[in-house]
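Could you join me in thinking about how sequence relates to backbone shape in a protein? We need material for that, and I hope you will provide a protein of your own picking. Once you have written the record down, we can walk along the chain together:

…
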Amino acid sequence: MSINLLKIFDEVPEFLAILGYQDCYHDKEKDEWVVEYLPSVNLTHSNGTVVQGGFVSGMVDSAMSQFLIYLSEGKELPLTLDLDVKFLKPCVPDVLVKSTGRIVRKGKSVVFTSGEIYQNNKLIAIATATNKIIVL
């Protein structure tokens, strides 16, 4: 089930389009946020064969942050304090990416999250983050 990002944001952030944003939804069974991207060759190095790691990091960071925004119905803004990404396989362009985000622990002002990125149903990156919550 897709979620209209305009229910989360006043407008869809431009960086999501740059990353190749396609869709997002709450997987209630797994209690995780899923964001689908179709990264273009414009995001690559190595003669157009590998999506640059910073863009991959942005995809998973966005999934973790969007989940926090979604759960708070837009009343809380997460600011990433730290982000640790481990790259397990290369991300290739023009193949759908599914980025997931989960809440590990949420306090009053700090949230710990984790995320994963899959391509062709294979795990290509894992991440953890610490976020400072700003109440709007």
Observations:
- The first strand starts at residue 21 and ends at 27.
- Residues 53-71 form the longest helix (19 residues).
- The beta strands are 21-27, 32-37, 44-45, 50-51, 76-87, 97-106, 110-119, 122-135.
- The domain at 5-135 is CATH 3.10.129.10 (Thiol Ester Dehydrase; Chain A).
